[in-house]
């Protein structure tokens, strides 16, 4: 329930329920499930307040997973550690943990955490300017997402591929995939915020500042607590305003 609330954009409920879950699971010595609940808290605090806020929770979750000997729980905690580190600019740590998570997930045949690790490793490739390398990893991730058959995995796969294709100049394909990603995500703001920010950037790149502005503003209102990502959406909003109304309007947004 805590994860569902957070994914839907309700930070307070998500964190409150996850904290309650941690306490109850600790009381019954359920290390594996407590580890998962701690990761939920890590996402909540990490995506709102940054790496230093989320790291202690995910480290505790990883410690519990290691103590339990549950390899799937370890893979998830390592993947989560990398996922929180990546948007905060800690590429070396994110890569190490994602590669470790991928190795474990492949060894035990865990499709979800294999897809999660591939998703992050592809994003790292994007961060290094290797769109083609990112696309290869994300195509494998999409194949797994189709096997899993759930909307959230398809949404993430389409988001990843859309961003890769933008880097490769394949704008029409990217536009279609990003639109599909939002549809697949439904009301789960956690996934939609990043996609809308990327899509807004595509509109801006193609010269449609009005569409970019509307989409960037939509991204910032879906889950305002996700400041790690909404900050990028505000930057796109500022650039679009600068085009439409002049530099002063853009600078006002950046100063907020």
Structure keywords:
256 residues; mainly alpha; 14 helices; 0% strand
SSE layout:
Elements lengths: L1 H6 L3 H17 L3 H19 L1 H18 L2 H15 L5 H18 L2 H17 L3 H18 L2 H17 L3 H15 L3 H17 L3 H14 L4 H19 L1 H9 L1
If you had to describe this structure to a student in words, what would you say it looks like?
Helix content is 86%, strand content 0%. It is an all-alpha fold and 256 residues long. The longest helix is centred in the N-terminal third of the chain and has 19 residues. It starts with a helix and ends with a helix. It is globular, with a radius of gyration of 18 Å.
Number of strands: 0
Assign the structural class, choosing from mainly alpha, mainly beta, alpha/beta, alpha+beta, or little secondary structure: mainly alpha
**Discrete helix count:** 14
Q: Largest sheet, if any? A: none
Report low-confidence residues grouped into runs of 5 or more.
Answer: none
> In percent terms, what proportion of residues is strand?
under 5%
N-end to C-end Cα span:
33 Å
Shape: globular
Secondary-structure element order, N to C:
HHHHHHHHHHHHHH
Helix content: over 70%
Average pLDDT metric: 94
Cα-atom radius of gyration? 18 Å
Short description:
This protein has helices at residues 2-7, 11-27, 31-49, 51-68, 71-85, 91-108, 111-127, 131-148, 151-167, 171-185, 189-205, 209-222, 227-245, 247-255.
């Amino acid at each position: 329930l805590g994860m569902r609330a957070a994914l839907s954009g309700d930070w307070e409920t998500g964190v409150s329920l996850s904290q309650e879950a941690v306490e109850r699971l600790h009381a019954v010595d359920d290390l594996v499930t407590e580890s998962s609940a701690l990761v939920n808290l890590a996402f909540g605090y990490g995506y709102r307040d940054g790496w230093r806020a989320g790291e202690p929770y995910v480290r505790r979750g990883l410690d519990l997973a290691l103590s339990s000997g549950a390899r799937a729980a370890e893979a998830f905690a390592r993947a989560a550690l990398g996922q929180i580190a990546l948007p905060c600019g800690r590429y070396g740590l994110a890569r190490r943990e994602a590669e470790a998570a991928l190795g474990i997930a492949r060894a035990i045949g865990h499709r979800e955490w294999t897809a999660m690790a591939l998703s992050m490793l592809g994003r790292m490739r994007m961060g290094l300017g290797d769109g083609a390398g990112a696309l290869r990893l994300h195509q494998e991730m999409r194949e797994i997402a189709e096997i899993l058959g759930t909307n959230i995995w398809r949404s993430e796969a389409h988001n990843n591929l859309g961003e890769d294709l933008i880097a490769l100049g394949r704008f029409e394909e990217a536009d279609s995939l990003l639109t599909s990603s939002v549809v697949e995500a439904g009301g789960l703001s956690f996934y939609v915020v990043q996609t809308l920010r990327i899509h807004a950037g595509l509109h801006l790149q193609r010269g449609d500042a009005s569409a970019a502005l509307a989409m960037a503003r939509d991204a910032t209102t879906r889950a305002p607590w996700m400041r790690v990502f909404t900050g990028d959406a505000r930057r796109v909003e500022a650039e679009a305003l600068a085009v439409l109304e002049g530099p002063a309007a853009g600078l006002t947004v950046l100063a907020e």
